[in-house]
Design a protein that fits this description.
- 42% of the residues lie in helices and 29% in strands.
- The chain is α+β, with helices and mostly antiparallel strands.
């Protein structure tokens, strides 16, 4: 017959967790897990908005370049919708007088929806009013033929 000594009781007690330790760990996990899930959700939403902004910038660049090449910007404000896949991008090109020289400030604004909120991406460039495709420019006018 063996008798329990103080050293064997202490060894058995060191091998497990107390009820208070288990409850503290569960409380910690109950606080951390929802915060971590919410952080992942916010990161996913931010990633979706970033991808759509990139696509909208590409649409704005395309619309602005087409307006420059076709000289459509001289006829006033233009707008339209471009559909890429399942996404719709509303665009608008406006021209304003530039305070120096005979230049126009062209602005392409592209609006899109992400997370049920409207977002807008804008691109700007300067265009020479006196230069049309196929014409020549005089030296010093700021545009190379």
């Amino acid at each position: 017959m063996k008798f329990a000594t103080a050293s064997t009781k202490a060894g058995r007690r060191a091998g497990g967790f107390t009820l208070a330790e288990v409850l503290a760990a569960m409380l910690f996990l109950a606080l951390v897990i929802p915060a971590a899930v919410e952080a992942l959700h916010v990161a996913t939403l931010s990633g979706e908005v970033a991808v759509r902004k990139c696509e909208a910038a590409r649409v704005a660049d395309r619309v602005l370049n087409q307006s420059l090449v076709m000289t459509n910007w001289t006829s006033g404000t233009q707008n339209g919708t471009i559909t890429e896949g399942t996404l719709d991008f509303q665009w608008q090109v406006t021209a304003e007088n530039w305070p120096r020289d005979a230049m126009q400030l062209l602005t392409a604004d592209v609006t899109f929806m992400a997370q049920n909120k409207p977002y807008t991406v804008s691109l700007w460039t300067l265009a020479n009013v006196q230069t049309t495709p196929g014409s020549t420019t005089t030296p010093g006018a700021g545009v190379q033929p």
